[in-house]
Write a structure and sequence with these properties.
39% helix; two-stranded antiparallel ribbon; seven-stranded parallel beta barrel; EC 3.5.2.9; 5-oxoprolinase subunit A; hydrolase; alpha/beta; 253 residues; Glyco_hydro/deAcase_b/a-brl; ATP-binding; globular
């Protein structure tokens, strides 16, 4: 039987800005990436999201991003590797405090948005992020784009590293995600999306926008919690994977 983790970015509301139906989507995922206040989230939202994830038995990870609330952390910024290291350590620490209150263990760290994409190609930034995670706790799992500089950096430093694939994104021939600035970046058809996921998990391949077969490793699947039909899709993908004898299980289960 194949096995895969199903993760979702959560805790991305802040102040009066409400995003996603967290309580519902947590019924169908196995890992939650919780925003730490830089690209989204605030202390109250972090606490509430941690509590909800614990109540649903969902593993918790930090989701550090660039300090860019207006751009939701999806705009590239010119930062040094040291600045990337510091941002990640700071944000892991913020979330860890809420977990400590409940005597809960953090499972993983997954960078968000532009920080994630930058680290997928920038070796020095990727190594700084991996070192930040390792220095906080070598037992943490680093989530990174499958086959990227970030996963290579995690494996190099000795972290348990989860190669991540995306349910609702298209791929380029080099294995990178299609830029969100392009019209064909997102997959909106549920059947197309799930078909892509099943192929990635069972065959270790994805068909790129250039119609080439790209090899990848699928340890964890990302779904986004901010879409209009996010809950319906989370339920659909969970049920479809299970029906195809693919076990949906957290990295640490």
């Amino acid at each position: 039987m194949y096995q895969v983790d199903l993760n979702c970015d959560l805790g991305e509301s802040f102040g009066r800005y409400q995003l996603g139906e967290q309580q519902e989507i947590l019924k169908y995922v196995t890992s939650a990436n919780i925003a730490c206040g830089f690209h989204a989230g605030d202390p109250t939202v972090m606490r509430e999201t941690v509590n909800l994830a614990i109540d649903h038995g969902v593993k918790i990870g930090a989701h550090p991003g660039l300090p860019d609330l207006n751009g939701f952390g999806r705009r590239n910024m010119s930062i040094t590797p040291q600045e990337g290291y510091d941002m990640v350590v700071y944000q892991i620490g913020a979330l860890q405090a809420f977990l400590t209150i409940h005597n809960e263990t953090m499972q993983h760290v997954k960078p968000h948005g532009a920080l994630y994409q930058m680290a997928s190609k920038d070796r020095e930034l990727a190594e700084a992020i991996a070192k930040a995670v390792y220095d906080v706790s070598p037992s943490l799992v680093l989530f990174g784009l499958s086959g990227s500089e970030l996963t290579r950096a995690g494996e190099k430093i000795g972290l348990r590293t989860a190669h991540e694939v995306f349910a609702d994104r298209t791929y380029q021939a080099d294995g990178s995600l299609t830029s969100r600035s392009q019209a064909d970046a997102l997959i909106t058809d549920q059947e197309h999306s799930v078909s892509q996921v099943v192929k990635m998990v069972t065959e270790g391949k994805v068909t790129s926008q250039q119609q080439t077969e790209v090899s990848l490793q699928a340890d964890t699947i990302c779904i986004h919690g901010d879409g209009v039909h996010a809950v319906d899709f989370a339920k659909y993908i969970n049920e479809t994977l299970t029906n195809k004898n693919i076990s949906v299980t957290a990295i640490y289960s």
